[in-house]
Amino acid sequence: METRLELDSKDGQAPSPTTVTTSETINSEKYPEGDQVSKRTLRDSFNIFEPRALPGAIPQMIMCPTFGFGVFFAGLYGTTLGYTHAGLFYTISAVSMIIIRMISKHFMDTVPAIKTMTGAVACGILCCLMLLAAPYGEPVFLASGIFYGLATGISLPLNQSVAVKNTPPERWGAANALFLLANDIGIGFASVIWGVINDSFGFQTSIVCVIVCLIASYASAWIVYPARDKRWRH
Known about the structure:
Blueprint: E1 2-6, E2 17-21, H1 23-30, H2 34-45, H3 54-80, H4 88-103, H5 113-132, H6 138-165, H7 172-201, H8 203-224
Helix pairs in contact: 3-6, 3-7, 3-8, 4-6, 5-6, 5-8, 6-7, 7-8
């Protein structure tokens, strides 16, 4: 919208028109596709699936069976071994997780993601190996909680950051939602499977299957992580 004002001339010449640009003109020039942008934003708000978050969600979902076993069956496993303080596994793992979360800011954004994932998977495998050796002593069983907490405390924020960084800012909400959904699916379904395996074949068979899940999670990270996150050096 433009308004033309007739300005009086002091030198007797004919007045010349001057164009005054209103706010509507500014907005139309600055946002020429305002209606399209609003429609696109509305459409995106109903699209709860964000495929660009899958590079972080897939490795985490495959790794979550490890956490499902720890959360639901580690204490029961220790109890079946006759350990009276089996519940300390959760206290030790929680302390370990808190500590690694507090110091993770020093390496989470500087160390390549695949290298950090290597550390998380290594801690998870070491935890499983100690659980397999747990019948030899309660200290071994309780100490495995340290590495369980490290694996959990590293992998969760790591893969969530991969999912979010690979997604545009306006889709971060959907990216986080998809990541958390994958996390819950991995823990929930695996816990049902572990319960069946525990009853049919014993806890140690489940632990071996957990190791397989950890290796599969690491392999998937190599495949789906963006190229920048698979570099060992910046």
